[in-house]
């Protein structure tokens, strides 16, 4: 949430930011609400001052035994009280509407963010790992076909159990996922992160605090109610990203300067309704409704947040470097910037199987596995996250940042395709082997059931 004083004093800057983002927000209407609220607030203060003066006057009139004047003053006080109640009631209604409308305004992009309409205008910063590529098969089998052949990914049975957009991992597929989770946690623990294992159901207030509500209500999984129904502060949602519970751990708290920077990491399963359209780009486990992720959440002093953003990016990159997975770094333009962020940098890993128009010259496609984001004080204002620079000083809003470290299904895709061998096996990256009992290859498993014999489904 933006500071109302900032909005009031810099309307043209905010308008330009909205235009650059392509955001459809009626800023003039919000400013008019703010102006009306301030008028009512001032009027209420005036009326209370008048009533206080009359109250003092009534006491003097009683002492002077001026009964008729006292009754007139009492009547005037009652009328002022009724007017104050009317003014304050209207002010409260407008304040509530204003607060809701303020939630519609996205964050203002940092001056360093490149201008652009959409992802086509994102700026590639650098690539890593392409100078020394391993030999991959001439025709790499896409992960969704390989996973089915090896019987390590089963989308069909997951659709039967839960629905489309979900999947089973079996055998070495499940072991590889567990290995990735533990490996990432260990890497980030080396970088000074404190482990958090958060609850998965999250209150509406927490979802709003980090910016998921009301903007992305349709994308979330709500518990005990329809997404179309009104929700209150106590309603629960399935975790869309560990950013939400971890950031809100400190909602309405005051941290100390000595606590910062505070670095937490959390593994969670994540749930999102938006899973994209059917097609090559979304087949398999690239875009699904449930996925595992290790999230990195940072709380920092405002003056350090952009230096921390660069460090956060390097911390996420370290996972890809140790796994020796080729990737690129992209700066997101204003039109592709997330609602909450002032600046975002993407890590996109190379998956060599499916050739896409925007893929690298080596073929294949890019898969976003992390977005390092600086929110400045946007989330802090929503959640009441503050820190005290010195114990004797007033509390100030801190800055929050996060990044995935990393989105595990897409890293799985990259491994299954980049580490694929001519004989159809997959070499397990060396850093993951200790987590898989020293195993070096994924060779797949024999399928089970009549379907494995081509007999079709049981009647």
TrEMBL record:
Coiled coil: 51-104
Domain of life: Archaea
Pfam families: Seryl_tRNA_N, tRNA-synt_2b
Major location (coarse): cytoplasm
Annotated InterPro entries: aa-tRNA-synt_IIb, aa-tRNA-synth_II, aa-tRNA-synth_II/BPL/LPL, Ser-tRNA-ligase_type_1, Ser-tRNA-synth_1_N, SerRS_1_N_sf, SerRS_core, tRNA-bd_arm
E.C. number(s) listed in UniProt: 6.1.1.11
Boundaries of every Aminoacyl-transfer RNA synthetases class-II family profile domain copy: 139-429
Assigned GO CC terms: cytoplasm
SUPFAM superfamilies, alphabetized: Class II aaRS and biotin synthetases (SSF55681), tRNA-binding arm (SSF46589)
One of the protein's GO biological processes: selenocysteine biosynthetic process
Family matches, as PROSITE patterns: AA_TRNA_LIGASE_II
Subcellular location: Cytoplasm
Residue positions binding ATP: 272-274, 288-291
Reaction equation(s) it catalyzes: tRNA(Ser) + L-serine + ATP = L-seryl-tRNA(Ser) + AMP + diphosphate + H(+); tRNA(Sec) + L-serine + ATP = L-seryl-tRNA(Sec) + AMP + diphosphate + H(+)
GO molecular function terms listed in the Swiss-Prot or TrEMBL record: ATP binding; serine-tRNA ligase activity
Enzyme class label: ligase
Family annotation (CDD domains): SerRS_core (cd00770)
Pathway noted in the entry: Aminoacyl-tRNA biosynthesis; selenocysteinyl-tRNA(Sec) biosynthesis; L-seryl-tRNA(Sec) from L-serine and tRNA(Sec): step 1/1
Transmembrane residue ranges: none
Residues binding L-serine: 241-243, 272, 295, 402, 404
Quaternary state and interactors: Homodimer. The tRNA molecule binds across the dimer.
Described function: Catalyzes the attachment of serine to tRNA(Ser). Is also able to aminoacylate tRNA(Sec) with serine, to form the misacylated tRNA L-seryl-tRNA(Sec), which will be further converted into selenocysteinyl-tRNA(Sec).
PANTHER family, sorted: SERINE--TRNA LIGASE, SERYL-TRNA SYNTHETASE
NCBIfam families: serS
Family: Belongs to the class-II aminoacyl-tRNA synthetase family. Type-1 seryl-tRNA synthetase subfamily.
Protein name as catalogued: Serine--tRNA ligase
Organism: Halopiger aswanensis
Taxonomic lineage of the native organism: Archaea, Methanobacteriati, Methanobacteriota, Stenosarchaea group, Halobacteria
Gene name of the encoded protein: serS
